[in-house]
């Protein structure tokens, strides 16, 4: 297996996050490879780490001052063995090929776990929507879609949102696709409700990661009732994680953005959460403004030079990292363990560095890796595609029930696969193994393509 990792590093030396994602999967699937020599003969690993297609394009647009701006657009079509490519679009200045390849690679396994027929993809741009006017965002999205439209379609590749891509961006992208193709189809998910979106889609990733935590706790006959929870981020995933935690009687006490974090000892109740949603979604403000209304809360500015993130250094029971990759380093992970946190459910993709994951597993935490715990979002995207194909809309209860059933099924699948391959209770191995087996069996059935 180390030869595959070495090959990936030699081919694309700069793609650190992609190497990390491949390494995590390779470590888990060794026993599967040993039991199934036909996988090696089919060179399945070499095929799995190579995207089926990478699309890279120029995105020129004109800002409000009349200046021409140029960004880079990407779509990674990673694997279509079990369905059309499916995965979000990220607009953030940090976006590059390596980050999107890591996200697309993770997405392949995640989508396989959902029980729905979806392959894996990811895309985006180094465009930063922060501080841009609505018209600038619209012009950018239109230019982005003017190239992307020829590569996607409801049976080919169905993008969704991710960091920096919410309802506003999906609307502009969809409008341009419709104009160029002259067809109204389910080519994007995360659409608004009155033009093809699904109820519960905005909530799905956050709700799903809390459902996953509840399932993990149930294995120890516990619930989330009364649990103190650390949440990071303040975007889509973080907001609905906090909402579901409140529904289940837990007490979220933190949230953050890239500038700093809030610790609110009193607990973030419904009124406070409504204030955060208003601040972030309507006013597009920063989390530090929270203390203007709730002065007893404490705001701490991020310090890029600091060796740890103080958000993870509070007494608590559960942690829900919901911002971005590698936001929990080894020191943060040790702080979590020392502070009594024993449940980690990853709303974000790959938020914990490998040394941190090792610490969680050594200390027998209930650790739900992103590709399992945050699969609720893509699951409801899959349900949105189903509703679009049927040309009908399910009720809130119907979608939420299906989401809960899917999260239960993912949880069970992870536990069973972990047990079957000799690491009971290790959700990371379970998620990697179950996702891997489903995808590679489909690849073998379909021949060398
Ligand atoms: P979002 O609505 O754009 O919110 C992202 C949040 O994370 C913001 O608070 C942002 O702060 C913070 N953040 C982003 N980059 C950061 C960085 N480098 N350092 C510190 N904070 C940072 O995005 P989202 O949809 O909630 O996504 C959050 C995570 O969940 C990502 O890892 C994403 O891949 C994952 N995820 C999302 C979905 C989904 O359905 N949306 C599904 C599965 C997984 P600023 O405002 O300061 O940037």
TrEMBL record:
Q: Where is the Glutamate/phenylalanine/leucine/valine/L-tryptophan dehydrogenase C-terminal domain?
A: 198-447
Which Gene Ontology CC terms are recorded?
A: cytosol
InterPro entries this protein is in? Answer: Aminoacid_DH-like_N_sf, Glu/Leu/Phe/Val/Trp_DH, Glu/Leu/Phe/Val/Trp_DH_C, Glu/Leu/Phe/Val/Trp_DH_dimer, Glu/Leu/Phe/Val_DH_AS, Glu_DH, Glu_Leu_Phe_Val_DH, NAD(P)-bd_dom_sf
What this protein is called in its record is Glutamate dehydrogenase
Family named by the database record: Belongs to the Glu/Leu/Phe/Val dehydrogenases family.
**Which residues hold NAD(+)?**
205, 236
**Which residues are involved in binding substrate?**
86, 107, 110, 161, 381
**PROSITE patterns with a match to the protein in the record:** GLFV_DEHYDROGENASE (PS00074)
Biological process terms in GO annotation: glutamate biosynthetic process
Q: Which GO terms describe its molecular function?
A: glutamate dehydrogenase (NADP+) activity; nucleotide binding
Protein keywords: NAD, Nucleotide-binding, Oxidoreductase
Q: Gene3D superfamilies, per this entry?
A: Glutamate Dehydrogenase, chain A, domain 3 (1.10.285.10), Leucine Dehydrogenase, chain A, domain 1 (3.40.50.10860), NAD(P)-binding Rossmann-like Domain (3.40.50.720)
Marked site positions, Important for catalysis: 162
Highest taxon of the lineage: Bacteria
Please name the catalytic residues of this protein. 122 (proton donor)
């Amino acid at each position: 297996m180390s030869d595959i990792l070495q090959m990936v590093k030699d081919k694309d030396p700069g793609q650190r996050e992609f190497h990390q994602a491949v390494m995590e999967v390779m470590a888990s699937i060794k026993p599967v490879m040993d039991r199934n020599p036909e996988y090696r003969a089919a060179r399945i690993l070499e095929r799995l780490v190579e995207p089926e297609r990478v699309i890279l394009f120029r995105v020129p647009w004109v800002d409000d001052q009349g200046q021409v701006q140029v960004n880079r657009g990407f779509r990674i079509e990673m694997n279509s063995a079990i369905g059309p490519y499916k995965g979000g679009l990220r607009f953030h200045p940090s976006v590059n090929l390596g980050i999107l390849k890591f996200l697309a690679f993770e997405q392949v396994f995640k989508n396989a776990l959902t029980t729905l027929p979806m392959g894996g993809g990811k895309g985006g741009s180094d465009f930063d929507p922060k501080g841009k006017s609505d018209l600038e965002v619209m012009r950018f999205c239109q230019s982005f879609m003017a190239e992307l439209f020829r590569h996607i379609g409801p049976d080919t590749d169905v993008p969704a949102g991710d960091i920096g891509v919410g309802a506003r961006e999906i609307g502009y992208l969809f409008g341009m696709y419709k104009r160029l193709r002259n067809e109204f189809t389910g080519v994007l998910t995360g659409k608004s409700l009155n033009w093809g979106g699904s109820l519960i889609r905005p909530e799905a990733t956050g709700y799903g990661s809390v459902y996953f935590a509840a399932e993990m706790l149930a294995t120890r006959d516990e619930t989330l009732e009364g649990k103190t929870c650390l949440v990071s981020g303040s975007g889509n995933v973080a907001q609905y994680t906090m909402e579901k935690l409140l529904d289940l009687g837990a007490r979220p006490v933190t949230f953050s953005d890239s500038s700093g974090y809030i610790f609110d000892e009193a607990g973030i109740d419904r009124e406070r959460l409504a204030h955060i949603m208003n601040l972030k979604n309507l006013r597009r403000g920063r989390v530090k403004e929270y203390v203007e209304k709730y002065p007893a809360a404490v705001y701490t500015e991020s310090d890029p030079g600091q060796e740890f993130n103080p958000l993870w250094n509070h007494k608590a029971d559960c942690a829900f990292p919901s911002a971005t990759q590698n936001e929990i380093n080894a020191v943060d992970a040790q702080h979590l363990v020392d502070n009594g946190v024993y449940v980690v459910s990853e709303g974000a993709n790959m938020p914990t560095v490998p040394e941190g994951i090792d610490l969680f597993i050594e200390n027998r935490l209930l650790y739900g890796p992103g590709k399992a715990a945050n699969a609720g979002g893509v699951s409801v995207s899959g349900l949105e595609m189903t509703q679009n194909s049927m040309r009908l809309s399910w009720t809130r209860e119907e979608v939420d029930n299906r989401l809960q059933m899917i999260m239960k099924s993912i949880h069970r699948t992870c536990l069973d696969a972990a047990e079957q391959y000799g690491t009971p209770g290790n959700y990371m191995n379970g998620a990697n193994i179950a996702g891997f087996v489903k995808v590679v069996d489909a690849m073998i059935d379909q021949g060398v393509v």
